Structures are given as C-alpha cells and as structure tokens.
Amino acid sequence: MKILKDKSISDVQGFKTAGIAAGFKKSGKKDLALIYSEKKAVSAGTFTTNKVKAAPVILNMEYIKNENTQAIIVNSGQANACTGEAGFEDAKVISKITADELGLNEKEVLQASTGVIGVSIPMDIMKNGIKNVCALKSNEGGKNTVEAIMTTDTKTKEITVEILLGGKKVLISGIAKGSGMIKPNMATMLSFVVTDANISKAMLNKVVKASVKDSYNMISVDGDTSTNDMMICIANGAAQNELIDSENEEFIIFKEALDFVNKELAKKMARDGEGATKLIEVEVVNAKDLESAKMCAMSVVSSNLVKAALFGSDPNWGRIVCAVGYSGADFDPNKVDVQFKSLVGEIKVFENGMNIYFNEEKASKILEQEKIVIYVNLNEGEYAAKAWGCDLTYKYVKINGEYRT
Amino acid sequence: MKILKDKSISDVQGFKTAGIAAGFKKSGKKDLALIYSEKKAVSAGTFTTNKVKAAPVILNMEYIKNENTQAIIVNSGQANACTGEAGFEDAKVISKITADELGLNEKEVLQASTGVIGVSIPMDIMKNGIKNVCALKSNEGGKNTVEAIMTTDTKTKEITVEILLGGKKVLISGIAKGSGMIKPNMATMLSFVVTDANISKAMLNKVVKASVKDSYNMISVDGDTSTNDMMICIANGAAQNELIDSENEEFIIFKEALDFVNKELAKKMARDGEGATKLIEVEVVNAKDLESAKMCAMSVVSSNLVKAALFGSDPNWGRIVCAVGYSGADFDPNKVDVQFKSLVGEIKVFENGMNIYFNEEKASKILEQEKIVIYVNLNEGEYAAKAWGCDLTYKYVKINGEYRT
C-alpha cells in the first residue's frame, strides 16, 4: 500500500467533485460539496445511533439500500436536525434537484448536512448552490470539496492510498470533518470515502461496517454523539479489477487499506478536536477479550480528568488507572501496568497494580509532545485495542462556552 | 421534617466527633476526622463500583458486615489507593489502633481515605493523629469534622434534619466531601450520615441502598467514578423510638428524611464541582419507564457540550436534545419538549421534537442564574427522574490541567 500525498478524492478514476461558497455560512467560506461518480457505483455506510437523527440521515438510511449510488451532496452551516417533517421534505427536495441536475434518480443521491442543530436549510441558497456546484464538478475539485464540508475544524482531513488488486491499481481516498460533538457510536461525523475498486455492494457493506468499528467508533473528543454522524463509502469499479464478491485475498488487501484510510481520518479528527493541543492514543494490550480492550481504551481516552492532566503534561497515572477501573472491562487490578510513550522516549509509571518510583521530570517531558501514547498492559490475555482522543483545554471551554448569538 | 440549620453530626444523641490537622496535608489544614458512637450502632453503606478499589474500601466492605459499628476514621491528603498489599496492611492497622484507642474491636471501626491516588499513608502521622483525634471527640466537634474530610472542596457540605418517629424526636445528620472525580456509581465520594434512630441493620441496609440510587448516583461533575467512593450511615438507636424492623409507617418517614439528607448532600457536591459556577438540575418527566428517565437525566447533565454552553448562559437546546438522543433512553424524538427554568422565570425552547421561536435574550437571562433547571418532557409515560451537575469552566481545566509537583 502506498500513501499518495498529493492526491485527493477527485483523482480517483471516474469521480469528479466540487466545493463552493453557496451562502450557508455567514463567513463566506466554502459550504457546499459534491462528490460524483460518472459510472454506476455501489455504496455502503453507517449512521449515527443517536435516536434523534437529522433528516439527511433518515433519508440516506433509505436511499443507501439502492443498488446504484452516484452522488453525495453536502452542506455545512445548518444541520437540518430537529427540523421536523418540513426538514425531511427539504431533504427529499435536495436529493431530487441534485439528481435532476446530474441526470440521476433521486435515490442515487445521498446527502449530508452539518452545522447548527434546529435550523432549517435555506432552500433558495440550496437550489442555486446545487446548480453551481454540479456545473463545477471536475477532477481538480478535491481540495475545494474537503474545505466545503468543514465547520469548527481547523484543518482539512483527507488521505489517499493506492493498492494493487489482481495487478490493477486501485485508489481509496477519503475526506472527513469533525471537531466537536464527537463520540461516534456507529458511523461518525461526516466521512466520505471513494474508491475505483470493483467490489460488490454486499462485500462493500461488510468491509465498511467492520472498518468503522475500529476507527471512527474508537475516537472521542467530548463524549457527545452527534445527530448527523455518517460515514459513506462509494466504489465505482473503474479500476477494472476482478469483482470482489467474497472474502478472498483481494478483499483482505482492500480491507487493510480501507482500515488504514478510516483510522487516519479518525485520528485527524481526534487531533483536531475542539481546542486540542495534543493527539492522545490509548493502546490497551493483553486483555482477556476484545470488548474489554476496547472499553478500557475508550474509557481512558474519554476521561475529562485524564484529558486535563495531559493538557498540563501531568504524569497523573492515578486518573488513568481510575478510568481503567470504571471502564467495565474485565481485568485484575493487581496486574495492570501503565507506560507513557512519545517521540522523545517512554517511561513506566505503574506496575502490577501499584505505584512505582519514576522520574517525574522525564515523564512530563514525554507528555509535552504533540502525540502521546498511553500504553496500558492488562497482563491477562491476548486482545488489544486502540482509541484516540485529545486533551481538554481552556480553548475547548472557550469554543463551546462563549455564547454566540 | 424540620431542617436544623445550626446543628451538626456531633449534635445527634450518642455521637461524638472530632477533626484535627494531623499533618497529612502540607497546607496544615485539618485532615483527620473521627465519628464515634458511644452506644452500639448498626451501619449500612455503599461503595465504589470501580474495579480498582482503594484499601479502605476493600476493608470496609468486610467490616461493615459486623453487627456493631461505632466509629469511622477518615484522613484527607492520601487516598491509600493503588498502594498494593502494603496499603491494605496499613488500612488494617488504622482500624486496629483506632479500635484500641476507643476500646472497640477493629471490626467495629470503618475508615476512609481521600486525596492523591498511589500515595501510601504516612503511618507515623496516622498513629499520632488517631491518638489526638480520639482524645478530642466531643459534642461540639461537628464543624471540625466536616472540614477535616475536605480536599479540593471549596465549601463544607452538611445537613441535619429532625423527624418524629412514634412521638420520639430523631435526628439524621450527614457530612460529605467531593468536588472532582465525581460520577458515583453506587455510593459516592465520601458521605457519612449518622442518626439516633432505632432501626435494624437489615432495614438500614435496605433504606440506604435505595436512597443512594436517587441521590449520589444521580450526580456527575466530570464523569469519573473514583476508587475511594463510599457512603456510610450509622444508626445508634439513642432516640429510643420503637425499633424499625419492617417497612412500616416509621420506616417511610425515616426513608423520606434520609432521601432528603442524601439529595441535599449530593446537590452540594454537584454545586461545588471543580471550577463550577452553577448548579444544574435536569428534570425528566413523563418517561416510559424509570430507567429511561434516569438515563436521560444523567446523559444531559454529563454532556461536556451542555455544561460548557451553560457556563456561557447559551440556550443551546440542540446539545440537550442531542444528549437525550444518545442517552439510550426509550422515547419518541417527535414528542420531546425542553424548557429552561430558574429563579427569574421559565421558557420553552423546543416542542414536539422541533425548534420553536423563543426570546433568546430572556432564555439567556434565565441561564445566568446560579441554579438552573433543564426540564425535559418526553410526553410518553409517567416516570420522572432528576440528576444534578455543574457547568464546565476554564477553572475546571485549570484545577485539573495545571501540573503540580
């Protein structure tokens, strides 16, 4: 697998994209994105488990069952969540006019909205915007597209990889947005991955569902699962590899690459968590079972006390062990070891469930880095899991606590 | 039931208490407390569900089975958590020497420690301290006792009520500490309630377990369940009411009063949450079942985004509805109403699962108060629940993010 640093989603064979400033954001920044496949394509996705689902989520859950999916239209600025029956009707119109513009059936168009909850989509802006964004779709549109889906994000989030499937070059390329209201439980924020791989809808569905569990579902910024989360993958087969319709060797290669793409996008979201200064990775090893490893990793990465301690580069292992303890994981408290790791070194701070002597200054230096690993060894079994998050900072409170009218 | 504002735990018949500065805290503040019953007494308690349990918690879970409990010894400064076998041996010695000093059996002495995790109890200080604190026990010791159990608390937390049981005056008086690492799941932080009621151990156990569920288990400051949480109630029968040994009328009167005491102490902890400027009460009504009402209330009061919004007096109902949505509660999103209430008024901001027009300025004024109620009507059934918490502020990050060596 090769990472292609200069490529974007619009470089994937058979895909054209665009991103424009349609007028949803008062700031005048880009706010409407289109991802379009020229060829017929299969799609798979996962959506928020929040019982309060935004209109686009509800509509997508129906339309994604369609055998063919050729477009995703995304606006940022208004979330079209808690907008009632009228909001749902708006969502249907959005798919319909996008479909008309592209010569598709409305069920072949998926959509997403992100932004303020409870605000209806300004449909005049949407109608004009859809015309303009469809007209501008191109193979150079990737950068604009990823910018147009951002809200409080400070950085764009994208990645493109190349793999070989039966001798054919295949690209997988994803873009994502997300910074706050992030503790996906199923899909996440917005993440769109396109590929020219030739894969059946059933197999794509299988690989997407599995991949989401270890990537987007293992990050937390603030523990809040949004009403609008979604991850959608579209595969148009333009690479002309032999159709993947079973869990064969190509399926495994494809899965590994998709996992990589999804984890990279997930980590980028965690690192760009609202107000964050650091990416925190919690690696739990030697757990009795996978569920325990995952619960333990998510519990530590979600703890406000751990997050605040890491903001201050405080080697406060007590808070980590406490979060391991209330995680619900099955483990023996007397066997737990904890280490801190970063680019400048590593240090053990807790062993066999007990405090040990360690050089606090060295530990603090390790924690001053921008990427920190909290390594928790449960010394019980053979299962491992990773989760990602960020520190809790003054800026998080500022971003979310300053009342903006 | 009468609230006795000037009374404290040492005013309950047959109880003597003391609080001293023994030297556990570098600040020189009070840090060792004794609660002592002159008469034989029954006890009941609940303890942290964290799998990592501090030594005093493990020891108490054994000793509290004893038919007689006459003392609780509490130090603040070191938590005696994650201190291994040596820490457990220390805990046994602490009960033993306290028992010797008071002429009791070691199983008749419970204990608690609170403070930094992973630090062993300085046993020289403890041995001297126990001698001194036992010598000082008196009926005027209440104020010193409640001060001696504080750590990051900014205010003492105590309450005393009087009830009549079969014509006899009965006092119930409680003290508590807790400010951070607070999302009790079973018992909570430290809370000690004493009463001169005459009640059997079995009935005391029953009433304590029930009462904790609706009080301490319904508050959250930061979602972190501590390793040292405990709530203990001691009843010595000095009021000479007829023994309560069934769920009779007196049991119900006693339960109501104990519920009040526990809820007041729980709310005091929530209001004194680290860095908090406001007490937040989430009241969920008309839920399908009790579990849904409770999950919904706890989800909203625990949301970082809701807490940060309330710090800024931002009537951001979207975050509240989002937290209701991911709570796991069983409800219909299209029936939800949300109101804000405080001393200066109330305002509906969300109706039938939809955004409605409301006066944002008025809503913000309501949220500027020190005590805020978020009223969520699920319009589904007949169950209700309340949860308490606080806002998320710069100061929370400062308290927990500044590295103190």
Automatic annotation (TrEMBL), chains A, B:
Protein family (similarity comment): Belongs to the ArgJ family.
GO MF annotation terms: L-glutamate N-acetyltransferase activity, acting on acetyl-L-ornithine as donor
Alphabetized InterPro entries for the sequence: Arg_biosynth_ArgJ, ArgJ-like_dom_sf, ArgJ_beta_C
Reaction(s) the record says it catalyses: N(2)-acetyl-L-ornithine + L-glutamate = N-acetyl-L-glutamate + L-ornithine; L-glutamate + acetyl-CoA = N-acetyl-L-glutamate + CoA + H(+)
PANTHER family assigned to the protein according to its UniProt record, in alphabetical order: ARGININE BIOSYNTHESIS BIFUNCTIONAL PROTEIN ARGJ (PTHR23100), ARGININE BIOSYNTHESIS BIFUNCTIONAL PROTEIN ARGJ, MITOCHONDRIAL (PTHR23100:SF0)
Family matches, as SUPFAM superfamilies: DmpA/ArgJ-like
Subunit structure: Heterotetramer of two alpha and two beta chains.
GN (gene name): argJ
Gene3D superfamilies: ArgJ beta chain, C-terminal domain, L-amino peptidase D-ALA esterase/amidase
Superkingdom as given in the UniProt entry: Bacteria
Predominant place of localization: cytoplasm
EC number: 2.3.1.35, 2.3.1.1
Keywords for the protein's UniProt record, in alphabetical order: Acyltransferase, Amino-acid biosynthesis, Arginine biosynthesis, Autocatalytic cleavage, Cytoplasm, Multifunctional enzyme, Transferase
Site (Cleavage): 187-188
Matches recorded under Pfam families: ArgJ
Binding site residues for substrate: 151, 177, 188, 274, 400, 405
Purpose of the protein: Catalyzes two activities which are involved in the cyclic version of arginine biosynthesis: the synthesis of N-acetylglutamate from glutamate and acetyl-CoA as the acetyl donor, and of ornithine by transacetylation between N(2)-acetylornithine and glutamate.
Annotated pathway: Amino-acid biosynthesis; L-arginine biosynthesis; N(2)-acetyl-L-ornithine from L-glutamate: step 1/4; Amino-acid biosynthesis; L-arginine biosynthesis; L-ornithine and N-acetyl-L-glutamate from L-glutamate and N(2)-acetyl-L-ornithine (cyclic): step 1/1
Annotated localization: Cytoplasm
Residue(s) at site: Involved in the stabilization of negative charge on the oxyanion by the formation of the oxyanion hole: 114-115
Active site: 188 (nucleophile)
Group of enzyme by EC: transferase
Name of the featured protein: Arginine biosynthesis bifunctional protein ArgJ
TM spans (from-to): none
